[in-house]
Amino acid sequence: MLLICHVVWMPSYSGEKDVHAGGFDYVIKFGYGHELFNFMQSDDFCYGFVQIRTGTIDISRLGADKKDTFIDGVTVVWTAPHPEGGRLVVGWYKSARVYRNFQLGKVAGRKKDGDRVGYSIQAAAKDCFLVPVEERNFSVPHSQHGTPGQHPVFYPENSKNRNFKKWLVQCEEYIANWGGRPIGVSGLISEPRPIKNSAGKGWPATPDVAHNAAVEAAAITIVRDHFVNMKADRQKDNCGWDLEFWRGDDVICVEVKGLTGNEVSVELTPNEYQAMRKAVEGTFDSGEYRLAVACNVLGVKPKLFIFKHESGAYWICERTSKRIRLVERTAARLS
User: Record's InterPro entries (predicted)?
Assistant: First the structure.
């Protein structure tokens, strides 16, 4: 189930004053919109506001019974008008609870000028994703028959617009392949995800060695098939990358990461990170550095991303133009 909610344009939706009204009357009049807290974490949740004149969302169109006051498991896509024109996806909630009626609960931190700010949608912060301003480039078709219009809430399930149906598929792929971390987890690429043991505490439990080996082997095969012209296998050399290929007269040094899911999010060992840092600083002298991330490697349709350094902390995929961001994280362990 998917719901599209149109709100004002803001950088972080965490209480800041920077807002672009974009035709929203309330914001033009008062200088702010109640969606200003949509991506602010409060007690492990995010609470979303969308301006509905009736205060009611027709959750029966999302599968709820007439007597239900809310429905769970909805993907809510948040869109906003870009200050220079057009409508873009700015974030989304996964597995959200959508209420039929407007909620004015006592949620910590959700006050503006002394007044409580209500909400209609709730989701765990770990399921809430905000697209950074500089990466907001996924446009939304609108103001045509069967596409989102002036009403802030759009139910796409009955749209007969063929182009919009294609866009919905692209939107689902965009969300599935997003490389950023949710609101409830700090950092992006190269930050490890903690895997708790059965007690829910302490250091990560022992990994499934056989499973990890299968994932790694599948990723290596996918990358080899892509580049074809093999020069050397460096996996046992502990040099910071796994494979080398010829591309004409150039040598491509590739660090390979395999994932069973579709989200591009990987961590690097110290050696791997050192090689990547050299590529960022322009001091990598063994060839051209690439980071290959193979997703869904054990599935029917794996997907391969080949990232090269773009600028600063950003890396761009040569195949899809997808961008990811490198975030450093320090760690320590004492025993």
Answer: NOV_C
Cα distance between residue 323 and residue 233, in whole Å: 27
Structure tokens at 120: 């209609």
Q: Which of 67-76, 83-92, 101-110, 261-270 has the lowest mean pLDDT?
A: 101-110
Architecture of domain 209-325: 3-Layer(aba) Sandwich (3.40)
Which among 29, 74, 26 has a CA at the least distance from the CA of 52?
Answer: 26
Please classify residue 77 by burial: count the beta carbons closer than 10 Å to its beta carbon, then call 0-12 exposed, 13-18 middle and 19+ buried. buried
Q: Give the pLDDT confidence of 186-230 residue by residue, as tens digits.
A: 433 333 333 333 333 333 333 445 567 778 888 999 999 999 899
pTM score: 0.55
Q: Which two tokens stand for residue 236?
A: 């046992």
Are the beta carbons of 32 and 19 closer than 8 angstroms? yes
Burial 195-222 (b: 16+ CB within 10 A, else e): eeeeeeeeeeeeeeeeeeeebbebbbeb
Closest Cα to residue 48, out of 9, 106, 99? 99
The number of residues making up the chain comes to 335
